[in-house]
Amino acid sequence: MNTKFHSSLNRMALFTALVLIGVILFRGEFLRVASVNIWLNGIIIGTTIFGIAICFIDTMRLIPEYKWMKRFFAGETKASELPPQVLRPVAIMLIRAKSQKKNYISAQTMNGFMNLIMGRFEDQRDQLRYITNVLIFLGLLGTFWGLIHTVGGFSELISVLDFNNDNVMETMQQSLAHPLAGMGVAFSSSLLGLAGSLIVGFLELQTTMAQNSLFRELEENLSDRTRLFGYLEPGARGEETALPYVNAAAKELTIAVKQLEKAITKLKS
Hints:
The protein is mainly alpha-helical. 81% of the residues lie in helices and 1% in strands.
């Protein structure tokens, strides 16, 4: 594997380890925050863990793809050996071209290959983006849920208070627990939702960098086998193939300039 891919994978592992160590060191505070609303906060924590797992799975899936690419362009693969998923359609076309003894591909074919691979990477990134957005939504949901309980609790508190009673302050202190619990739900859900989105977002960034590393290396390898005008045999000259196109374009440009000069002359007269 190349250095950039290893760097992304190492950053993912280090960041996840730091998050886990932080949760273990502050497990008391973490459990108190999570237990304020165990159902909603449990869903947020579970979604965060699921997003972390998806990031690592998507990154680890690139390892066999990368190994196949290195073997193929080094000429060490068999005709029937195909990569697992992402590079499979490109591999099928490259192996077919190789069996037909076409050693080079056109620039249009290369662009098609790269667009196909980028589309598959985008499908994987959309899943991670959706998980990040879900975490933000769950945090906001908990915020509004807690605020609804808080406003409702204060409304009930004010409606039952009798300010003519000497024990009104004691009654108020006892009744404040319910609305303040709603504030705890709001802040705990917001905190866990934002923290989860940040964790998954950072790992998503590292996964994207690993995918871009594979994409760029594939592009460089395909560039070595690309010619501007169709397939060329190893002994063919690119100038001979391109010369008719250049001559035709030059003739059309000369005709267009002459027509433009005649039109300008007529306008002046």
